[in-house]
Amino acid sequence: MVRLIAVLAALAALLAPSGFAGRSYAQGPAPVESELNLITPVSKFIHDAALKAFADYAKERWNVTVKVSAIPAGTPVAYGRITEWKGKPEVDIFWGGESALFEKLAEQKLLQKVEISTAAWDSIPASIGKPKPIPLKDKDGFWVGTALEPYGLVYNPKRIQRLGAPEPKEWEDLLNPKLKGEVAQCAPTRSSSSNATYEVMLSRFGEDKGWEWLARLAANTGHFTARSRDVPTVVAKGEFAAGFAVPSYMAFEEKLAGFDIKFVAPTYAFVTPEPMAILAGARNPKAARAFIEFLLTERGQKVFMERGLFPITPKFKVQGVPGSTAELAVEFTGGVRSYFDREVANVYDEAVAAKRSDALKVRFRSDIEAKWEDLKKK
Amino acid sequence: MLPKMPRPRALGALGVALIWLFLALFLVYPLTRIFYDAVTDEAGRLTLANFAGFFTDSFYLRALWKSLVLGVATVAASSVIGIAVAFLLVRYDFRGRGLFSYLTLIPIISPPLVGTLGFTFILGRAGSVNVLLMDLFDMLKPINFLYGIHGVVLVETLHLFPMITLNVVDALGKIDPALEEAAESVGARGWKKFWTITLPLTTPGYVAGALLVFIWTFSDFATPLILGVQDLLAPQAYLNIVQFVDRRIFRMGIVISALMVFLAVVFLLVARRWVGLKDYSSLSYSVVARRRLSPPRQAAAVAFLSVLMLLSFIPYVGVALASFSRGWALTPLPLSYTLQHFERVIVETPKYIVNSFLYSGLAVVLCIVVGVPIAWILGRSTMPGRGALDSLNTLILAVPGTAIGIAYIRAFHFDLPGFDRGLTSYWIVMPLVLAVRRLPYTVRGAYSSLQLVHRSMEEAAASVGASGLRAFRDVTLPLIWKGVVVGSLFSFMTSLQEASAVLFLALGGWEMVTNGIFAFYIAGSSSEAAALGVILIAVAALSVVVINRLAAGRMGGVFG
Questions:
Q1: Which of B54, B56, B57, B125 should one mutate to test binding to chain A, selecting the residue with the greatest count of A CBs within 10 A?
Q2: Residue burial A343-373, b: 16+ Cβ < 10 Å; e: rest
Q3: What is the pTM assigned to this prediction?
Q4: Does domain B13-47+341-560 have CATH number 1.20.1440.230?
Q5: A259 and B327 in contact by Cβ < 8 A?
Q6: Tens digit of each residue's pLDDT (9 = 90 or more) over B514-543
Q7: Least enclosed by CB within 10 Å: which of A225, B47, B120, B482?
């Protein structure tokens, strides 16, 4: 009889989804669970690589096969789904987007403290940038930065040349009349990079002048994309000549795919720490913690450094052998190897941004989206 | 003693009850739920404020107006093309007619999203055509063929005109030649005969097709979004719902979805009323004598059809080129070719394909189990509630997929009794939603062939003592299986292509090919999206070949 039960149990273990099997039958307490799920606006190019690197690491380190998966979702969607899950999340980790949203989630008790090792936590400076500092980790311990990523502008050199415009270097260059109908951007209502860069313009010029500037940008805009990731795509293809508020790695991904596209981080380009947090009620908290700690090691940071992102700690710099993708990334992003050995000019104020976030979207709808057809005629 | 066998009649009643339960649970309840959401506030109080918000917002009103205009324009454009093609194919004989009648079906299998991407690769601002034109005429800026509402009309028309063609072909095939001969005998020829006799006789088929084109265009959010048109209802519903941050706007998305369902139902009722009054067609197909065209006219017909086919094949050419190319930009054709995109979608991420076939397969099984009995109830029984059943079945065709997807999320997120998660946490929700969405094709397929089987055969079976169920199994089913297979294949093919509802419901690991297309597209890898698109096109094309063989061109009924 006992034997029969044992056989049945073994059968059940075989038939059950791997997640259950791992939890119920592992010998002793496993260092990490055998599953890890993310929801993230960080695109596949980065999150796939990060998850795969972690799975390899977990296999080597603990001999645990971690089944990794990600739900790709724009920042607002990800945020919305997390609130809809009401503390019973389908995933363990939320990664990317504005840190302001992480604060909001923490307030709703939808996050748990990351509680990674002190060494890993302390390796990340508290903030970067002047005159306004950009926090790189949460003072209350609910989120932690993973990589630095500037939101810049992109252009298609062939199209720019044909239009007879100078290659854009600063945000103002996108207002060039020769680029009329040639700029692509994503609405700030749908993209955190766009939202942050709109916020930068409002902080630079003040509300009224800022919206005037953004209206002029809309007048030059030929296409509002559905997602921020589409902006570098349509510019790389040459559908439009230039793009606004593009994360560096998205542009670099197009470069690696064989397209001729250029990236510039103009003055006051916002630099995001790509925050990461563990959701309250996560089913795999240990794997989540191990994932974060892994990303902060040199091996983890390399995943980013080879893909057009920058280390979150001064300990590392983007470098590789000549001709490596890391070196290509340095060249692509204008020679930057680390954001810690340069001045980062920043006017984006997190507190102001968090407060203004809803108003910004409302005003975008009424002053830009609803009037775009008229603005274009100017 | 053996237990008493359940009587067939009781079994039948149980079956009918189960069918009603299925429809009530998975169609009526979720739809009711979004109407409930649309008329309540965050605290659950009844309110009309949401609708008031919609109807006082000039942006949304413009979206409503533009959506209606878009629908009408697309129906007009696809009617002109669709009817012309149908007449050419049914009434005239010319070189290549058989080939063209097959090719006409192809535009319909254009996969979601990548189909539109395919257009941008060829007709976009940096598409092959513009690159050639700009080099040829030294133009500073490209011609804007696509970005804007005119582009949406172009893309939708070239995609959907076969829906009209199929329905009109079907209707033309059912016209009793005697009617037209009678018209000719009293002197009505040419255009007069066309306007007074032929066109009215094809009206029911045409209206069914036009309604589908209208609702499809009305509820398609992906095409306008790619073409940069956001002030339409469907994109607004989608965008508002997928951003959950602002609860007010989220609710507005639900309100728009509810409004779209409501409008779709209104259009449906109006169309049915109209068609119901004018249904003169006989049930059986008649043999049509085709007129041989004179050589110059023949050349004109072939030229028209060739140009049309060339235009409708633009997305396929674009998708195919993109799927094999690397870094294709600003050249008429790609400069470097690769198989890496296919490798990535087939070898590295086979889950998309596996899931698609698994879920669509299961969905079809459900479609048959539920749909064939529904067809029998509609076609053969005198059961009460038949009208309601028929309306529900047609309603499904009219409900936008986005609305169904969001309705499921809202309706099935609560914990199931005995489980610690809701239905939306289990993958079975995917085939379920597919089955519900694609049920009408199976029902129509079975129903239309049921109509061609004379009742007397079943009566004969009954007269020798066979029960209803037994007569159905032994007599009816063998006679209608072709219709069932055709309908089911249609359900299968369209399930594979379903993008709107499953986009909302898929969790990590459940992604279908269409989710993959969106995921790759969103991730900026439109080449991988194109590779998945090519796979979808191949499977769909194969299904069409089989359908065509089995149905011999008489598949219009499936759509109507």
A1: B125
A2: ebebbbbbeebbebbeebbebbbebbbbebe
A3: 0.83
A4: no
A5: yes
A6: 988 888 887 778 888 999 999 999 988 888
A7: B47
